[in-house]
Structures are given as structure tokens and as C-alpha cells.
């Protein structure tokens, strides 16, 4: 199976129904996307598929063949952070940071869609992402900061 | 393999989680650091002056620590680089940053020159673990004094070299500066070629918090960039060459016994290793999918035990199964005649409070990678107790501790839930047979079912109060929750307080704040109800019965910022609660609104927090907010459902944790007491939320809810 991840072509031999997250992490070595629940309920595994947020832990790998997949590793270009990453760096609001990749990918997708979202729109878009450390107020701050940049 | 007995072991938080007789000998650690650090200056902290704190809860620990033990050390290399060795670990409390700040402050070096080596049993001195909010007050204090000792030693060395007086020299930016002769020398150059080891001086002078330049500031978090780019390698991300993926066969219910299992089909699968050892069956395979298939190919027969309680009848069960033995460890003093105090009171109020079991749900589940090499076992695992896991592994595999190395990379949180070495033992067991490194990452379901929970509990409170608002009697029985926060923090002439351990049907253990989340809930609900009974303002009633100025200060600071005496919105309710725990003081105010469908919305939370001199204001505020948010879950809707020895809600779609949409307006007031030693902040801040919300619901005219969680369905009954 041929996959397009962060603009690079990857060929993997794997059952077509294996989830995208496992393929990214175990076969391609991109471990930035995290396993949190295995049922699409926590958002730690969020990646972009053709720019739309996708819970990679419940996405069969065969369904993304021929599509563009972007993971957290694909945001930083030539050492330059994505504006959303930069905003999170400035706010310094994470604790354990295990949710960070999924939060950032969901935020990137939201801001692509709505560059200046209201607080309600941010909450709605981000509600599928869990931060068990409870840093939600900081994540909101970072997304608002990114929306201004 | 010795079957770990923890599955049936209802361990008591704060006591049984500590390894028995923990502690290495100085001689051993001395070798460890001499071998490691090479030339340069090493300052080690010797344990005999570790426990200067008058905190009673630490007293039992002191006895465990050999007088000759070493707690931490700091090494200054010939290149001027500073390396700090500590057994504490980073689980998201951002302690790597605050400990670095402390060292940078005292040693007068740039933050960037410091490397923290944390939680690697081969490299760092013994440490019981990262829990109990002890890193800042204990390890922080040790490192502060070690760094100050190093600074003083460097000044003296330079004074000798230059034949100058120490008074004419100062330490600055990694150099000793001779202010008279206008000369400078870097720390590394000064110690070059010598191997110097010194204990911490008893009389060392540390910098007063009011003069801090690096500590006390919100410096950028260390390694932040690696976390927001996905580059940080958590244990669940690790892979050594040839690593196999492991899976463990789980029992269908608690207490089930394995009668037989046919492993032949699984064993014949290509690349698959199957281990059957007692009740343990596990597989290792080159990829997860194959491991899952192998596990499914095993056909076990189990004998399930009957007579399990469920979350519907758990409170009766806990009371019925409580041991008569009273545990007064943390109960303060039992004094006066409580029955007489009750009968002579103007008003009396008795109430039973119930606390459901809840789960920690660290977003990174338990994970371990185990590798055997030449008889030595190395395990990377996410744990709050690397040395505790080292001991567990040594016992299970009958090894000397020196043959077991546990490494803990910064991990995906714990909240008191990662004290044990379950995944480490499983991975190590599989790796013996597979003769390759094995990685185990628990599924979310395994994490819910096979980890341990915050204990459920039943708390009976009876109190008497006189017309003028004096509490005359206080009787408090806690079944099963634990001893933390048990003693009343108010003045009461006659009191009788007990913790009665019970036979918990679920594996239980530490949780953020330990039993204080339960005990403070019951106490603070009861305090507000007593105030209502005598028609006194609940804040005034608390202050009247308090002697502790720090507690009064946080209650008043929270009330002031909240507008406690200000205008009230009709239909809204206002509640207050507070307490202190592990050196942190919290005052919490909550506002709720109840609509016509009896649905309750938490409108806002205002919380004041004080834990001595603040080291990192932004990260402290973050801990306080995080505690409030996590506390909201246990207050409002988190509860473990169980019956017949099985967990009902074992996924994040069925066990609800707080999300963005659950967060009220939160306002934090941090009180910086530069005159007091810094204490930990990860726990105390959680205890006020639940009772403040409950008291606000009562104030709004809702029912007096006395069970946590308060609103499992979002609405009043």
C-alpha cells in the first residue's frame, strides 16, 4: 500500500483494516501522534487527511491511500514552527503534553477553516480532544493567540 | 515467576506503596557517582538533614532512610556544564523546569547550562518516588542547599587560587569574579583535573526568595519545543532494534482463576512467543496485529469467583466489611468527650457522605520496554516510582537490584496512578522468553480495568455547634477512603476521628490528594450545613472556628476575588470550601445555576492558593487550574461502574472526563509567601472544588447532595 504522509511517499505491507495510527507509529516510525483510547474519543491521535481532522486510531489505513496525510511531524518546515505551534510555545500551557500533538492538529484544522473563530466555535471544534491534566484554558489561549497571527 | 499479589491487594495510600526498607547505602551511591561524574566538583546531599520539616506525615519516612544515604547530587564538569542527579521524575508537573530554576538560582549559572538526570536507577541516588507533593519541599530544598554549597566551595577555591579573601569574590553567570582585581574564572576551569566530592554544609546560606532572580519567574519550560513538535519520546513511542510487541491475556473478571489454556495454536504462529506461567499468559510478536491474533488464538478456561459487590451496593459493602481496627495515623488528636459534646450542643447535624471509585485516566496508558542483556534487565517505563519498580522487578525475577535498571523518560502523566510496575513486569517476563526487547502498551480498557482506582468510601459525620457558632463536637468516621486530610482543620474541643479500612472489591491506591478529596468534601459540606443550621455566613462560620492564618487567608482571598459579599444573581447559588494539604492551602468559591429542568451548570470557580514562596508562577497557576479541572470530573460525573467483578465503563466514550465544554470561568489568586518555604502544588488545589460546588447547589435551593459524583446525569434528582 502506498501512503502519502507529510508530502513523502511511504510503501507499507499491512492488512488494509489496520488503523492508520498503528501504521504511522509502528511501521513508519512517526510517533508524534498518540494512542489514548482506541475509539476516537480522546483526540490524541488526530491527524489531517486532506486537511480535515481525522481520528487516526479508528481510520483504516486503506481509506487514506491516495490522500494527503499530515501529522504533527509535518507541521514544522525547515526548522520553522507552524504558527499554531509557535502560539503553543509562547503560552507554555501544557503539562504532560501527551495530548499536545492531537490538540495542535485539531487547532490547525480549525484555523484553516475559520481563521478567527469565536470562543464557542473553538470549544465546539476542540471538544473531541481530551487533556487529562486539565490545561484547557491555556489551550484556548494558545488557539486565540494563533488566530491573531 | 512469582505472581504479583497486587491484584488482590487493597493497598493503603501513602503506606504500602513505599517499598519496605527502601534505601541504598552511601558506599554504593558513592561508587555510583564517582564512576559517573569523572573530574570536577560534586556536591552530594546527605540524608541526615533531609527531614527538617515539622510535617508529621513525613515522620514515618525518616525512619526508613539510612543516615548515610544520599538524596541528590550536583556535578559541575570541567566544561562548566552542570548536571543534576535526582530520583524525582517528570509527569507533567513541570518539575524539571522548577528544579533547574532552583539550581540556577543558587549556583549562579545560566539555566541553559543545567541538565537534569531524573528517574534512572543506574544514574541517580535512591528516591522513594514522586508523590505526596514532596519534590518541591524536599528535593527542591536539597538541591538548593547542594547548589549553594557548591557555590560557596567554588568561591573558596578561587580565593585560594588568587590568594584573595572570599568576601572580595562573587559568583556570577557560571564564573567566580574577583571584584577587586577585576579577574574572572569559569567554574569548570576552577575545578579542572580534580575530583572533589563534598557533602552539603549544614550552615550553607541560601538566597532569600525576595532576592531570587531566576526562581520565582515564569521561565520557558525546558524542552517545550520537543513536546509541541511530537519529537519527545514517551515510553509508548520507544522502539529498540528487534523490539517485539507484547500483549497479556486478561481474566474475564476480578479474582478469576485460570484452569487451563491451549496455547499450541498461538505458539505455532510465525514469529510469536507465548509465555504461560501460573496465571500469567502473554504473547510477543513482531507487530501488534500479530500479537492480537495470537492472543485470540489462545482458548482459556477460567473459574470466575462469585459474590462481587457492584457500584449500586458498594457503600453498604464497605461499611459492612470495615475492620474494627482504627487507623489513627493521620487523624490528629482524639480528645475530649465527643458524646457529651454532642448531647450538650445547641444544634446537632449528622450526615453520611458517599464517595464513588474513580479512575486516574492518564492519557498515556501504562507502558514499558524491557531488555535483557548479559543477565541485566533494563526497563523503560512510565512510573512515579522508578526505584519502587526496580524493587518489584528484583523480587519477581529474583535478581539483585544492581541487575535491574529502571529508566523513566518524562511521561504522559500519572496523578498518583502510576506507582506500580505492572507493565514493566509483563514486558520483562515476555522478554526473557523472546530473547528480544519487548514493549507493552496497555490499552485504554486495560488501563481502566487492571490499574488501580481512587478508593470509594463512606464518611459519617456528626457535629454539634453552639448558638454563637462555636463547634463543640466533631465525630468523623471514614470507611475505606484513607487517612489523608482526615483530621479536622478547625478548632473543636471534643473530637473523635477514625479511618476504618475496609475490604475493597476493586484494586485501589493513591490519587491526586489521596483521601483528602473525600475527607475534605465531607468536612466542608458539613461545615456549610452547620453554618446554615445556625444561620451564619459560611465564610464567617469557618473563620470563627479557625486558628490557622494561612487557611483564613486563602478563604478570604478567594471570597474577595469572587465577590462573596457582592450582588447575587437570582436563581444562582454560591458555595465556599477550603483546606490545606501537604503544605498547600486552598480556598475555593463556586457559582452554579440551576435551570427549570433541574440541570446544574457550574458558572465560575474562583480559587486562592498558597504554597509558600512561588518558584514558577505560570506553572503553579497551571497546576491549580489543572487540579480544578480534574476535580470537576470527580465532583460532577466521574464514577467507576462495576458489577460481577467487571468494570462497566472501561472506555473514554463511557467513562466521562472533563472536556472543553465542561470548563467554567476560572479565576486564580496566587498568594506568594516569600517568607515561607516552597511547598508542592500538585495536590492540595484539587480538594476544594467538589464541596464548593455542592455547597453552591444547596445555596441555590437544590438538594443537599452528599454523594460524589454529585450529578452523574447532569441534573438534580
Under the CATH scheme, the architecture of the largest domain in chain B is: 2-Layer Sandwich
Overall average pLDDT of chain A: 97
Instruction: Describe the global form of chain B.
Output: globular
Let me know the number of strands of chain A: 5
Give me the CATH fold name of the largest domain in chain B: Aldehyde Oxidoreductase, domain 4
Strand order of the largest sheet of chain A: 2-1-5-3-4
Question: What's the β-strand tally of chain B?
Answer: 28
State the CATH architecture of the largest domain in chain A.
Roll
Distance between the termini of chain A: 38 Å
Spatial shape of chain A? globular
CATH-defined fold name of the largest domain in chain A: Ubiquitin-like (UB roll)
The number of helical segments of chain B is 18
- In which range does the helix fraction of chain B lie? 25-40%
> How many structural domains does the protein architecture of chain B include?
3
Whole-Å distance between the termini of chain B?
50 Å
Amino acid at each position: 500500500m502506498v501512503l502519502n504522509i507529510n508530502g513523502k511517499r511511504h510503501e507499507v505491507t499491512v492488512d488494509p483494516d489496520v488503523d492508520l495510527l498503528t501504521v504511522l507509529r509502528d511501521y513508519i516510525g512517526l510517533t508524534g501522534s498518540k494512542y489514548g483510547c482506541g475509539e476516537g474519543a480522546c483526540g490524541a491521535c488526530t491527524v489531517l487527511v486532506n486537511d480535515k481532522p481525522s481520528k487516526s486510531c479508528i481510520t483504516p489505513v486503506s481509506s487514506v491511500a491516495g490522500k494527503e496525510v499530515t501529522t504533527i511531524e509535518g507541521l514544522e518546515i525547515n526548522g520553522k514552527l507552524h504558527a499554531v505551534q509557535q502560539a503553543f510555545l509562547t503560552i507554555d500551557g501544557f503539562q504532560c503534553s501527551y495530548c499536545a500533538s492531537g490538540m495542535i492538529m485539531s487547532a490547525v484544522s480549525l484555523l484553516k477553516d475559520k481563521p478567527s473563530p469565536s470562543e464557542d466555535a473553538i470549544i465546539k471544534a476542540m471538544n473531541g480532544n481530551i487533556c487529562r491534566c486539565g490545561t484547557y484554558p491555556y489551550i484556548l489561549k494558545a488557539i486565540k493567540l494563533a488566530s491573531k497571527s | 515467576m512469582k505472581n504479583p499479589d497486587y491484584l488482590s491487594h487493597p493497598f493503603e495510600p501513602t503506606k504500602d506503596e513505599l517499598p519496605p526498607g527502601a534505601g541504598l547505602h552511601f558506599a554504593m551511591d558513592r561508587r555510583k557517582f564517582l564512576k559517573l561524574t569523572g573530574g570536577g566538583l560534586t556536591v552530594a546531599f546527605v540524608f541526615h538533614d533531609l527531614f527538617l520539616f515539622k510535617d508529621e506525615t513525613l515522620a514515618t519516612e525518616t525512619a526508613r532512610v539510612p543516615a548515610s544515604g544520599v538524596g541528590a547530587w550536583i556535578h559541575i564538569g570541567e566544561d562548566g556544564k552542570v548536571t543534576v542527579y535526582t530520583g524525582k521524575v517528570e509527569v507533567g508537573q513541570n518539575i524539571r523546569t522548577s528544579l533547574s530554576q532552583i539550581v540556577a538560582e543558587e549556583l549562579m549559572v545560566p539555566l541553559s547550562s543545567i541538565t537534569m538526570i531524573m528517574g534512572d536507577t543506574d544514574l541517580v541516588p535512591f528516591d522513594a518516588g514522586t508523590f505526596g507533593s514532596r519534590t518541591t519541599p524536599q528535593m527542591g530544598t536539597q538541591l538548593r542547599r547542594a547548589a549553594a554549597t557548591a557555590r560557596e566551595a567554588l568561591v573558596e577555591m578561587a580565593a585560594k587560587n588568587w590568594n584573595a579573601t572570599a568576601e572580595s569574590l562573587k559568583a556570577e553567570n557560571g564564573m567566580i569574579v574577583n571584584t577587586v582585581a577585576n579577574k574572572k574564572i569559569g567554574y569548570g576551569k576552577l575545578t579542572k583535573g580534580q575530583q572533589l566530592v563534598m557533602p552539603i554544609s549544614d550552615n550553607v546560606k541560601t538566597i532569600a526568595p525576595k532576592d531570587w532572580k531566576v526562581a520565582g519567574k515564569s521561565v520557558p519550560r525546558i524542552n517545550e519545543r520537543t513536546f509541541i513538535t511530537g519529537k519527545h519520546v514517551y515510553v509508548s513511542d520507544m522502539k529498540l532494534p528487534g523490539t517485539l510487541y507484547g500483549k497479556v491475556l486478561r481474566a474475564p473478571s476480578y479474582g478469576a482463576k485460570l484452569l487451563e489454556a491451549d496455547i499450541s495454536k498461538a505458539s505455532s504462529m510465525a514469529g510469536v512467543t507465548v509465555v504461560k506461567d501460573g496465571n500469567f499468559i502473554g504473547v510477543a510478536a513482531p507487530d501488534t496485529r500479530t500479537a492480537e491474533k495470537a492472543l485470540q488464538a489462545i482458548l482459556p478456561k477460567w473459574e470466575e469467583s462469585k459474590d462481587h459487590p457492584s457500584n449500586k451496593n458498594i457503600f453498604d459493602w464497605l461499611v459492612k466489611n470495615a475492620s474494627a481496627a482504627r487507623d489513627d495515623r493521620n487523624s490528629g488528636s482524639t480528645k475530649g468527650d465527643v458524646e457529651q459534646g454532642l448531647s450538650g450542643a445547641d444544634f446537632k447535624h449528622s450526615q453520611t457522605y458517599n464517595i464513588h471509585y474513580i479512575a486516574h485516566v492518564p492519557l498515556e496508558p501504562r507502558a514499558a520496554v524491557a531488555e535483557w542483556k548479559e543477565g541485566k534487565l533494563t526497563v523503560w517505563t512510565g512510573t512515579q516510582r522508578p526505584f519502587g519498580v526496580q524493587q518489584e522487578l528484583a523480587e519477581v525475577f529474583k535478581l539483585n537490584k544492581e541487575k535491574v535498571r529502571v529508566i523513566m523518560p518524562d511521561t504522559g502523566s500519572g496523578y498518583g496512578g502510576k506507582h506500580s510496575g505492572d507493565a514493566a513486569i509483563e514486558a520483562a517476563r515476555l522478554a526473557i522468553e523472546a530473547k528480544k526487547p519487548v514493549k507493552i502498551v496497555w490499552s485504554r480498557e486495560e488501563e481502566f480495568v487492571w490499574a488501580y482506582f481512587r478508593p470509594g468510601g463512606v464518611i459519617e459525620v456528626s457535629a454539634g455547634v453552639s448558638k454563637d457558632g462555636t463547634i463543640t463536637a466533631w465525630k468523623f468516621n471514614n470507611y475505606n477512603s484513607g487517612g489523608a486530610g482526615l483530621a479536622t482543620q478547625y478548632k473543636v474541643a471534643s473530637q473523635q476521628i477514625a479511618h476504618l479500612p475496609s475490604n475493597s472489591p476493586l484494586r485501589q491506591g493513591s490519587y491526586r490528594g489521596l483521601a483528602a478529596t473525600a475527607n475534605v468534601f465531607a468536612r466542608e459540606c458539613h461545615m456549610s450545613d452547620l453554618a446554615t443550621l445556625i444561620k451564619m455566613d459560611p465564610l464567617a462560620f469557618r473563620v470563627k472556628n479557625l486558628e490557622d492564618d494561612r487557611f483564613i487567608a486563602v478563604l478570604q482571598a478567594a471570597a474577595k476575588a469572587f465577590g462573596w459579599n457582592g450582588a447575587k444573581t437570582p436563581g444562582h447559588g454560591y458555595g465556599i470550601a477550603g483546606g490545606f494539604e501537604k503544605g498547600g492551602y486552598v480556598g475555593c468559591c463556586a457559582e452554579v445555576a440551576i435551570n427549570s429542568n433541574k440541570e446544574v451548570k457550574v458558572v465560575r470557580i474562583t480559587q486562592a492558593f498558597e504554597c509558600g514562596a512561588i518558584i514558577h508562577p505560570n506553572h503553579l497557576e497551571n497546576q491549580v487550574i489543572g487540579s480544578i479541572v480534574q476535580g470537576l470530573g470527580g465532583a460532577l460525573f466521574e464514577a467507576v461502574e462495576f458489577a460481577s467483578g467487571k468494570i462497566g465503563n472501561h472506555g473514554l466514550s463511557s467513562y466521562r472526563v472533563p472536556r472543553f465544554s465542561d470548563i467554567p470561568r476560572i479565576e486564580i489568586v496566587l498568594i506568594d509567601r516569600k517568607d515561607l518555604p516552597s511547598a508542592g502544588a500538585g495536590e492540595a488545589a484539587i480538594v476544594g472544588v467538589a464541596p464548593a460546588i455542592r455547597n453552591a447547589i444547596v445555596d441555590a435551593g437544590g438538594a443537599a447532595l452528599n454523594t460524589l459524583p454529585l450529578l452523574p446525569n447532569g441534573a438534580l434528582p
